[in-house]
Design brief:
Elements: H1 3-22, H2 42-48, E1 51-55, E2 61-72, E3 75-77, H3 83-91, H4 99-120, H5 136-143, H6 150-162, E4 167-169, E5 175-179, E6 186-190, E7 200-202, H7 206-217, E8 222-225, E9 230-234, E10 237-247, E11 255-261, E12 267-273, H8 275-279, H9 294-315, E13 319-328, H10 330-344, H11 350-361, E14 366-377, H12 381-390, E15 394-398, H13 403-412
Parallel strand pairs: 1-15
Antiparallel strand pairs: 2-3, 2-14, 4-7, 5-6, 8-9, 9-10, 10-11, 11-12, 12-13, 13-14
Helix pairs in contact: 3-13, 4-5, 5-6, 6-7, 10-11
Length: about 425
């Protein structure tokens, strides 16, 4: 290649990189930054791309979870339309409800829900602007002690407020302007702790933080924790538990559990995790429904309805978790704790022995309900994927969601088209 042509090509590449850096379509308002080319060969590299492989969480999505739906006692709660639901409507050839109509409907429902809760009980820790589980019916059932759903709802949200590894974060009291009687100028005075009712949550998993925050905003705040006490509030009344053991979540276990003792001395095991794992650990019922007693018949109906609700949640592109519990006798817990402690200090096959001990306890569970979280798409994702399609670039996304959840999200972000064939 003549040296002059080589120099000309390098100049062209430099100019192309400059245009990429100055492209307003690639400017990101949030970070106040444009695209920054790291090499002059970027034009050549972009022209050779045929496949893009990416994960979903944190790349296509924001990795910011919101509690959108729950199923408790066989009853679904939660309104609103998720992005995956819009994608499903598009795939079916229909038109989703307009954005303005959706927003207006949710605002009205949220206002109604907050009014009901304000009249029924005091929730000092609520953050109404962060309330995502919008359901006036949920508020009515919580406010009415005679409702058949009142006790199941309390048991369910109590479990969400207790069963986690979240840390509460209580910021210092905010300065409050007070008038100076001598100068009429505002003075700054710090409010005491008694007036500071703000609590946020820090967690390794955004799912856990979203669940605990969701429980907080409907009247079940997780207030504080220490090595010997966990304090929550239930519809304005403080409840205190003694934490006994935490059985950590892992990708192999697909669940986590906590064991707590309440002030009356009753010991309870709370478990939450993937529906397939939790349902395999429910207490056995008779093979023939006609042989069920009244309690088993009620439990079977709740299990069936909760499973159908979780399928509906997954079809809406939501991430589901199942919540269950069982009570333990003091003798059973003490015997198990000896086995667990011995496994934890074993020098041989410690991990396998600890897993076996946890498996032995997490059986005979009863269903409390299910949760459904939404991880919203990042801004501009559908448009970006459509542009990649037009450029002839093939995009593969890796996700651990259920198949149906992945399909609905694929439609919502333009990864899948109406006429696409999915491979299973």
């Amino acid at each position: 290649m003549p040296i002059s042509l080589y120099i000309s090509i390098e100049i062209v590449k430099t100019i192309q990189a400059y245009f990429i850096a100055q492209d307003l379509d690639m400017y990101y308002d949030t970070l106040n930054a444009g695209c920054t080319p790291k090499t002059w060969n970027i034009s050549d590299d972009l022209g050779q791309i045929e496949y893009i492989f990416s994960d979903k969480t944190g790349t296509l999505t924001q990795n910011v979870m919101e509690l959108q739906r729950v199923s408790v006692g066989g009853v679904k709660y939660g309104e609103g339309v998720t992005e995956a639901m819009k994608g499903k409507a598009k795939a079916a050839g229909g038109e989703p409800e307009g954005e303005e109509l959706q927003d207006e409907r949710i605002v009205r429902a949220k206002r109604e829900m907050l009014d009901i809760m304000d009249r029924a009980f005091t929730n000092r820790w609520a953050q109404p602007d962060k309330l995502t589980l919008v359901s006036p019916q949920l508020a009515q059932d919580l406010a009415d002690p005679s409702s058949s759903q009142h006790a199941p709802l309390i048991a369910f949200f109590r479990a969400l407020a207790v069963c986690h590894s979240v840390l509460p974060d209580r910021p210092p009291p905010a300065p409050q302007a007070m008038p100076d009687s001598t100068t009429n100028l505002p003075q700054t005075k710090r409010r005491g702790n008694s007036g500071n009712f703000v609590v946020n949550y820090k967690a390794e998993s955004p799912d856990e933080a979203a669940l605990v925050a969701g429980a907080r905003d409907v009247g079940f705040p997780f207030v504080s924790s220490s090595s010997n006490a966990v304090t929550i509030e239930v519809l304005g009344r403080a409840e205190r538990f003694t934490p006994l053991k935490t059985l950590e979540f892992s990708s192999a276990r697909k669940r986590m559990s906590v064991i707590v003792r309440d002030v009356s001395g009753r010991i309870t095991l709370y478990t939450k995790g993937a529906d397939s794992v939790v349902y395999a650990r429910l207490r056995p019922l008779s093979e023939k429904p006609e042989h069920d007693n009244e309690e088993d018949s009620h439990e079977r109906a709740i299990r069936d309805k909760t499973m159908r609700d979780m399928e509906d949640f997954a079809n809406g592109g939501l991430r589901t978790l199942c919540v269950a519990y069982r009570h333990l006798s003091a003798q059973e817990y003490e015997q198990w704790a000896e086995t667990y402690d011995a496994a934890s200090t074993s020098l041989v096959d410690r991990e396998a022995k600890v897993d076996a001990a946890m498996d032995a306890l997490e059986v005979g569970l009863n269903v409390l309900g299910a949760t459904a979280l939404e991880d919203k798409l990042q801004e501009g994702v559908p448009q970006a994927i459509e542009t990649l399609h037009q450029a002839g670039i093939k995009l593969w996304i890796l996700t651990g969601d259920k198949v149906q959840t992945a399909i609905e999200i694929g439609y919502s972000c333009n990864l899948l088209k109406i006429l696409s064939e999915s491979m299973r």
